[in-house]
Amino acid sequence: MKLTMIPCFYLYFFCVSVFIFIPPTLTHTHSHSGNYLTTQQHWFSQTLDHYSPHDRTQFQQRYYEFLDFFRTPDGPIFMVICGEYVCQGIKNDYIGVLANKFGAAVVSLEHRYYGKSSPFKLLTTTNLRYLSSKQALFDLAVFRHSYQESLNAKLNRTTEENPWFVFGVSYPGALSAWFRLKFPHLTCGSLASSAVVLAVYNFTEFDQQVGESAGPECKAALQETTKLVDKKLATNAKELKASFNATDLKIDGDFLYFLADAAVTAFQYGNPDKLCNPLVKAKKAGDDLVDAYAKYVKEYYLGTYGASVQSYNQNYLKNTTASEDSSDRLWWFQVCTEVAYFQVAPSNDSVRSSKVDTRYHLDLCKNVFGEGVFPDVDSTNIYYGGTRIAGSKIVFTNGSQDPWRRASKQVSSPSMPSYTITCSNCGHGTDVRGCPQSPFNIEGNEKNCASPDAVRKVRQKIVEHMDLWLSECQDKSKSCI
Question: Residues 139, 252, 402, 431: which is the catalytic one?
């Protein structure tokens, strides 16, 4: 289906006439001593289908605001994009440091369908038809316009515009880049951290990056562990799954995907030693590698990191009752319709089991959502451009150890600079979150990164770009576009 963006002059009139905005409060302050700058929730009346102008159906969308650093009245507004998860507040990460530096207000809108922002009580496949990145981008555009209108009313202004800057990590990082691409008149620039802008059908490069990040010794131990798991799965699946506390995963593919993800997480979030040290040690000592891996999975992946076995259970993913536990079903729907990112095993030298293949992913999509659900990655990449995105004033950043960086824009250009933060534990969103990221690193402190200076240098580049682009936005003689 071809989707056409509504011209900006229609958008403004449409927003003003249709949407009811619950005005923000500009007088109170929040404590920001913990993991969040604020957890105080607000509500926004959002249109369900932005592409059906005659349909006025709305739903309540949750958002947050943090105003302690706001330089009234002309300070910038930072819009932090929430993604495929429950948005519990505005994280106290490096974006908060930037907000303090630039005198910015910070707002964050929960992604449609996730958390408390679900339009439906039942998340049937039919009811999920309005869940897409395109609808989510329009949500952000409408929210941004209405928030600015409300702020102007509070400050007794009429047509003034504060400079806006958009932030996102991972899928929200892609949304941040795409927002700048599709709505350049609504933002001065974007930070697209670990932004997965390329929809990929068979994402074999993901597993290849895991092997590269692991290094020769750890990779060899992981590959041997995978072979032993495959062998035990064929002879005594029940006992094997029990040793990982994963007996609920009746489908072998679900179990193997769970084990692969457990390894990925160590590199993705800056904790490679948690995985590699015990595995390499066990291999050198001649100990049982499967037992060593099971210990890591139970103690770190299910324990410290807090992963859930049920997230990999297709029967669990079929649950259509909307709740704050629905994120896995919702994200799989987006995977199965828009972006794929099928993390399949390469044909040779794979780290994960070869049974985690394209057929496994397609069967999951069909089993969970029914016939006819298929990821149209070509349309997604045509619509946004993939890594050939034709935007401007977007900073792309990636961590050297992050498997997702193979779906991000890693080639730099003057209008869209791209930086890779290189160190042994630089993972997903390191520029915003620091490293390691489990447990959460308050203010994104880089001191625990293997190369703190590498993080600082990229952050300085981000500040330089932001300073330039925000100043250009504030100069009324220049265009933000």
Answer: 402
Tokens of 131: 């869940």
Neighbours of 424 (CB within 10 A): 17
Grade residue 159 by pLDDT with cuts at 50, 70 and 90: confident
- Token look-up 């562990």 returns 225
Is residue 471 among the annotated active site residues?
Answer: no
**pLDDT tens by residue, 257-289:** 999 999 999 999 999 999 999 999 999 999 999
* Helix residue ranges, H only, 155-236: 171-182, 204-235
**In this predicted model, what pLDDT tens digit does every residue of 74-112 receive, in sequence order?**
999 999 999 999 999 999 999 999 999 999 999 999 999
Euclidean distance between CA atoms 53 and 42, whole angstroms: 26
Residue from 46, 166, 29, 49 nearest 108 by CA? 166
428 catalytically annotated? yes
Active-site residue flag, 170: yes
Q: Which domains are assigned to the chain?
A: 1-197+385-476 (3.40.50.1820), 201-378 (no CATH)
Q: Among 7, 459, 382, which Cα is nearest to 191's?
A: 459
- Alpha carbon distance 197, 177 (integer Å): 8
Q: Is it the case that residue 13 has pLDDT exceeding 80?
A: no
Catalytic residue among 311, 428, 431, 465: 428
Tell me the pTM: 0.92
Query: Which of 117, 132, 170, 311 is flagged as catalytic?
Result: 170
